[in-house]
Write a structure and sequence with these properties.
five-stranded parallel sheet, Methyltransferase, Cobalt-precorrin-4 Transmethylase, Domain 2, five-stranded mixed sheet
Length: about 280
């Protein structure tokens, strides 16, 4: 039997000349939702590699770091995993503290395993810093009780698109259709017609309540309430694009009306703040 010693959130940074990689969860969007540990990692960083889904406001915490954007599928070329690993490997071996900043939680559909396994084999020291995943953030920001004593005793996080580069066992929609709780679908906007039809054909009621939450916790957050039978059409009609999570189940019926959700004073507004160039 082995035991692991919990890491102190006030750990000192690596000794000078000793490189380190932190896989940090940035949370769902609101920069105030990053963990204290994640914030401290950014302060220590010499290099930050960040995804396009990460709120750029978080980069201001990394005051002394070089920042590298990893690309956007619809705007620019995305770096391959091999390219990312090469940058990390070189920087850590140079004694730098590297933060790989990922939207949500790096261990929830964040491909952290792909990065961590290979780099650990090469002797790269790694710490994974959890973040708030969007599937759980919707409980607060959309008012959806993911579990409910009357109708949802469990929660399942489901990939709307499965990996095409790994041999992955296909989702069993018969099991998901009978799941005694709430389904939260990630990466499911473009495949909504496929998974919604599969759930219905497997026995899930077409009238099952569904909520689509676009850009959870961002100022531009939007919520569409619908049913399992109509979700694909509503996504098309509302022109919803990623990032979005879809919540499926009777618990959705218990969410409040949008008008009753708490709102911050500037929620949904775009604010321009000017300042001298040297302060950027």
């Amino acid at each position: 039997m082995t035991s692991a010693t919990p890491q102190n959130s006030d750990n000192a940074p690596p000794a000078r000349g000793t490189g380190m990689l932190y896989l940090v969860g940035a949370g769902p969007g609101d920069p105030g939702l990053i963990t204290l540990r994640g914030f401290r990692c950014l302060q220590r960083a010499d290099l930050v590699l960040y995804d396009y889904l990460v709120n750029p406001a978080l980069l201001r915490y990394a005051t002394k770091a070089e920042k590298i954007a990893l690309g956007h599928h619809s705007v620019s070329r995305c770096m391959s995993q091999d390219e990312i690993n090469a940058i990390i490997r070189r920087a850590v071996r140079e004694g730098k503290v590297v933060v790989r900043l990922k939207s949500g939680d790096p261990s929830v559909f964040g491909k952290s395993a792909d990065e961590a396994v290979l780099l650990r084999r090469e002797g790269i020291p790694i710490e994974i810093v959890p973040g708030i995943t969007a599937g759980f953030a919707v409980a607060a920001f959309a008012g959806i009780p993911l579990t409910h004593a009357e109708c949802a005793s469990a929660v399942a996080l489901v990939a709307g698109q499965q990996s095409t580069t790994h041999e992955v066992r296909p989702l069993d929609y018969r099991v998901l259709a009978q799941f005694p709780g709430t389904l939260v679908v990630y990466m499911g906007v473009r495949s909504a017609e496929t998974w919604s039809r599969a759930l219905i054909e497997a026995g899930r009621a077409p009238t099952t309540p569904v909520a689509v939450i676009h850009r959870c916790s961002w100022p531009t957050q939007s919520i569409v309430r619908t049913t399992l039978a109509e979700v694909a059409e509503r996504i098309r009609a509302e022109k919803i694009r990623p990032p979005a999570v879809v919540v499926i189940g009777e618990a959705v019926a218990h969410m409040p009306d949008a008008a009753t959700l708490p709102r911050r004073p500037l929620f949904g507004r775009t604010i321009l703040v000017t300042r001298p160039a040297h302060q950027n």
